[in-house]
TrEMBL record:
This is Amino acid/amide ABC transporter substrate-binding protein, HAAT family. InterPro entries: AmiC_PBP1, Leu_Ile_Val-bd, Peripla_BP_I. GO terms for biological process: amino acid transport. GO terms for molecular function: amide binding.
Length: 382
């Protein structure tokens, strides 16, 4: 590897079914790299990003990860949105002593020494979402998702959380990633017949907007049967018809409406980097702060080799737009600041439930009952 630069890989899709969100992650990653380089880089060496477009195809994520490691001399990769992409890349980095920084909420129940998970684990979004939905709307949930690993596993977790709350699953359905209108219509007919109190959607990509738009056309009312989601964010809302997302419920550690000084600066920087009008998402915020975590660890370790870099990473934190974040040594996941929000008429997200504290990552949901007790004592914002 050249001593003049620190090479890193960037794998986010600029085309394909999940490109709307991944473009925000790519922009945030490059923004953070630019900020670090403008300050002189790390130990006088610039960070050089080598980026490819995997087009939302897991096989291309795998192939480009191999190219980054084997041909481009990269040890660090920032990338992946869908869990199928992450699972395609992990064997590559594990075999090559490389490290993947993964900035997307996911289904949990995974650990790799070669992955840093900076998106929310289920105890940092699913618990909060189910608590809010069951308390305010009811305990009969209909589960709908895209046909791949994250929705199946996330629906399993959410269904179990509703059962623990004394509720039940009224139905469950999966749609193709390349969804068609007939798929949406069939799902809405099944939901209407089941009459749930709430819908939990783990749809991803372009199908998200199709589903919310069709929900509105059918005359369903979010005041009495809202869609709750972890994966719907500002990028998907921007793809919907005006008003389609209004009243629906989402959970994440970050919303672009946060009024912290750090977030105001971040939004301004994203507007300059990604263009005015680019939605800023929780996935983008995680993509941004994980680069800064890496740079601080690199400063401390003087090496991008996995062992010294990880030792340094576990000892530092970063003042992210959502709040101070750090990586847990025991599971390589990140301490985050969970929130629940409701989409307003402008298509932005108002916080309606805020624990007001940083939550330790528990990707295997070992401490579920203590977390439930903590949430019951949390702050609700009306």
């Amino acid at each position: 590897m050249s001593n003049s630069v620190w090479k890193v890989g960037v794998l986010f899709s600029e085309t394909g079914v999940t490109a709307a969100v991944e473009k925000t992650q790519r922009a945030a990653t490059l923004l953070a790299i630019d900020e670090i380089n403008r300050r002189g880089g790390v130990h006088g060496r610039q960070i050089q990003a080598i980026a490819y477009d995997p087009r939302a195809r897991p096989t291309l994520f795998r192939d480009y990860a191999r190219r980054l490691c084997d041909e481009d001399g990269v040890r660090i990769i920032f990338g992946c949105k869908m869990s199928s992409a992450r699972k395609a890349v992990l064997p590559v980095v594990e075999a090559r002593e490389a490290l993947l920084f993964y900035p997307t909420l996911y289904e949990g129940f995974e650990y790799s020494q070669h992955c840093i998970y900076t998106g929310a684990a289920p105890n940092q979004n699913s618990v909060q979402l189910v608590n809010y939905l069951a308390t305010h709307y009811g305990k009969r949930v209909y589960l709908i998702g895209s046909n791949y690993v994250f929705p199946y596993e996330s629906n399993r977790v959410v269904g179990e959380l509703f059962r623990l709350a004394g509720g039940c699953v009224a139905g469950e359905r999966y749609l193709p990633l390349e969804v068609e209108q007939a798929d949406i219509e069939g799902a809405l007919a099944a939901i209407e017949a089941a009459q749930p109190d709430v819908i939990y959607s783990s749809l991803v990509g372009d199908g998200t907007a199709f589903f919310y738009d069709a929900y509105r056309r059918h005359g369903f009312d979010p005041a009495t049967m809202p869609i709750g989601s972890l994966s719907t964010n500002e990028a998907e809302i921007a793809q919907m018809q005006p008003g389609s997302a209004e009243g629906h419920i989402v959970a994440a550690p970050y919303f672009s409406t946060l009024s912290t000084e750090r977030n105001v600066d971040f939004l301004a920087a994203m507007a300059r980097a990604g263009g005015v009008g680019m939605p800023v998402t929780s996935n983008a915020e995680a993509a941004y702060f994980q680069v800064h975590l890496f740079a601080k660890a690199l400063e401390l370790s003087h090496s991008d080799r996995i062992e010294p870099l990880l030792d340094a990473l576990y000892s530092i934190d970063f003042d992210a737009p959502q709040g101070t974040v750090r990586v847990e040594r025991e599971n390589n996941h990140t301490y985050l600041w969970p929130k629940v929000g409701r989409v307003n008429a402008r298509g932005t997200i108002d916080v309606v439930f805020d624990p007001g504290r940083c939550v330790r990552p528990d990707p295997f949901m070992i401490d579920l009952q203590p977390q439930a007790a903590l949430l019951n004592a949390s702050v609700v914002v009306h």
